[in-house]
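cron nightly-structures :: item 1 of 1
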Amino acid sequence: LPNLWDYKHAPLCPVFSCFPAPNITCKDFSGNETHFTGNEVGFHKPISCRNVNGYSYKVAVALSLFLGWLGADRFYLGYPALGLLKFCTVGFCGIGSLIDFILISMQIVGPSDGSSYIIDYYGTRLTRLSITNETFRKTQLYP
């Protein structure tokens, strides 16, 4: 199949070659069928880059664990209103601090500007998986 991705739209994003599973037949919009054996490239998929603005994952988790009851974690991540509310209520009597620690360590709550955390190369990173109309679903074969 020809590479239909226009590289001019995202020149700095990496593009990975995807190999379809063996014995897959694909039909394009023109009606042409292509049979894949599993050894040839079926398409190229661009992967979006993560932008970072200086927020460290380790610092956010440490602030949440040790100073979360003062709202320091929310101030650090750019949520001053929630940080002040946590400061005035002593972390919502500790319950809000525990919930924020869980949310920050699971990377559900991130920096307020929408950027990603700076994470060490060998550190943990959460990749959210989603099922869309472009997701291929393979039927389960029972023995």
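cron nightly-structures :: done
The longest helix spans residues 57-67.
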